[in-house]
Design a protein that fits this description.
The complex is a heterodimer of chains A (216) and B (145). With 216 residues, chain A is an alpha+beta fold. Helices cover 54% and strands 11% of the residues of chain A. Chain A contains seven helices and five strands. Chain B has one domain. In chain B, α1 runs antiparallel to α4 and α2 runs antiparallel to α3. About 4% of the residues of chain B have low confidence. The chains are: A alpha+beta (216), B mainly alpha (145). The interface between A and B is medium-sized, with 16 and 16 residues.
Chain lengths: 216, 145
Amino acid sequence: MRKQNIVLTSSSFLILLFVLGVYIYKNQQVMKYRFMAQENASTFVREHSQTLGSDDAKVYLVEFSDPACETCSAFHPFVKKLMAVNPGKIKLVVRYAPFHDGADYFVKILEAARKQGKYWETLEVMYKTQRYWASHHNPQPQLIWKFLPSAGLDLEKIRNDMNDPEIAKLIKQDLADAKTLNVKKTPGFFVNGKPLHSFGYNQLKELVEAEIKENY
Amino acid sequence: MTNLDQASNANWTIIFICWIIASVSTLGSLFFSEIMEFPPCALCWYQRIFMFPLVLIFLTGLFPFDKSIVKYALPLAILGWCFAFYHYLLYSGIIPESLQPCSQGVSCSETYLDLFGFLTIPMLSLISFSTIVTLLFILKRRLSK
């Protein structure tokens, strides 16, 4: 064989091996998550997890998010739109993966707001004002307080409630589940236990639509 | 004449094997970081800096076969080997962790992969660099004869 051909054949073989490896690995991951979703559903949805949407929904959209994460904020309107387009079919489950330094502070505020029944309003306000208190991945906790009243919160009560050890425990549990499910970046989405093959709006939409098709 | 041909063919094959090793290492490390999403630590990055260009250097040295390939590839391979060796010592605990240069982000001594109970990522890197360095030294001796 000519030398050029040897090198060309080897290159093609190596690249093919790589692509095959990617394919096998991704498939394996999907199988792993499917198994986990069946055997151990609580890893995806805990008792304490905040949910949005009908209890009869058959498509569970689990989102590991961080209030200080810019991409989570950008995805939030998109997720809400997905739910609006498919009324009653999607249930959103919010899990926490506060990977940014000090981001658990905002989760604590959010969970304290839940006790006042203003969870989703507060989340909305947080995402909308995020660029003022967490720009360029540099959260500044004190700056958020002036935006919170617009969610209709009793700030004094928030300051007391947010130090509840139950909330710290809940964050710890969510972080442990994120580790189990190999969530290393936020937002981390699972649709009925299936992770996104690759990250993006369209990929999420496709996965959600595929699950709706399968279940309805 | 045929003897000379055979010798030059063998030399070509040595570089070809080096190229295969560098390519497999490069693709392998990309698989770990991009597909399996293991974040590369600082030391891994230094080893990548010396491994990735070797793929292209060996490839250009193959067509046509260029004797000076040793001169260009050896410094990269040796420096890469030093990082790999240091990383291996750190990983196996011979150098205490407090001495490691990467304090923030990813730990250099955290185990991500353990194939067959002994094959770790730093070990794979050390094996690759060692083989390439050895092959290049063999070639250097053959060429100086």
